[in-house]
Structures are given as structure tokens and as C-alpha cells.
């Protein structure tokens, strides 16, 4: 695996396997930070029985790669892995993994948070939830935009 990898996939991922791959053959790594996002069973006051994620193939991967490149310009990180699932998902399913390696924890924490904040607002994904009232598209959240503002 290269020191940066972006994957969009329908299949689930195994956290320990992915972290081991990210760290393999890199003895300079002193810190690994990972974030796993999962499907919630409740959103905006409504029960969610399923979620469908769509993306724009090619554009989505490039957008996320650009986000990772920006993180590498801001912090001395060794590697970054972003896996984002698409397709039908259920509550408790894993949606996204962001993992970052660096010599020290501070850089890894900051870069990981930066990547997920930008991913939530800038990557071209569309989410549709199934609720008791029917299907609905999920709009961008004000809190995600506010989180992004701290990096500007």
C-alpha cells in the first residue's frame, strides 16, 4: 500500500487489518489515529431503518485524495487511509474509516480531524435515509460547516 490510499467500496472493512496495512514496513510511525463513522438509527428526530449512499465515481476519489494531500501539506504525516462505503447500509454498519500515521500523536489527531471535517462537507456523496415517513435525502449540516471553519 502506498502511504496514501483512498477507497470507495460497497464491502465492509476490518479496522485492525487496515491499520496493520497502514503501519506495515514503516518503523518511523509513532502514532496512529483512526476514526470510524457508523450509521445511526436516528437522525433529525426520525428513526432510520436504512441509508443509501451514492457517489460520483472518479470525482469522489479525486476529491478525497485532494483533501488528504492538503492534510499532508499542513502536518508531517506519513500516511493516510480513507475508506468510504457506498450502497445500501443499515444502522450500526461502518460507513467511513479515516486513519493517519505520523511520528507523534498531535499531528495524527489534527490531520485525521481535518480529513473527516473536509470529507463531510466537500466530498461528493449523496445520502438517502429510509424513515417511517418514507425516503428522504440528507442535507448538509450546519455543524459540519462550523467544524470546517476552524481549518480556514
From TrEMBL:
Tell me the leader sequence span. none
Domain of life of the organism encoding this protein = Bacteria
Name the chain's protein: Molybdopterin synthase catalytic subunit
| Protein EC | 2.8.1.12
Pathway per its UniProt entry is: Cofactor biosynthesis; molybdopterin biosynthesis
Gene Ontology BP annotations: Mo-molybdopterin cofactor biosynthetic process
Task: Give the enzyme class.
Answer: transferase
Question: Could you give a GO molecular-function term held by this entry?
Answer: molybdopterin synthase activity
Q: Which Pfam families match?
A: MoaE
Lineage summary = Bacteria, Pseudomonadati, Pseudomonadota, Betaproteobacteria, Burkholderiales
Question: What keywords appear on the UniProt entry?
Answer: Molybdenum cofactor biosynthesis, Transferase
Assembly, in brief, is: Heterotetramer of 2 MoaD subunits and 2 MoaE subunits. Also stable as homodimer. The enzyme changes between these two forms during catalysis.
Q: Which family does it belong to?
A: Belongs to the MoaE family.
Q: Give the reactions, separated by semicolons, that this protein catalyses.
A: 2 [molybdopterin-synthase sulfur-carrier protein]-C-terminal-Gly-aminoethanethioate + cyclic pyranopterin phosphate + H2O = molybdopterin + 2 [molybdopterin-synthase sulfur-carrier protein]-C-terminal Gly-Gly + 2 H(+)
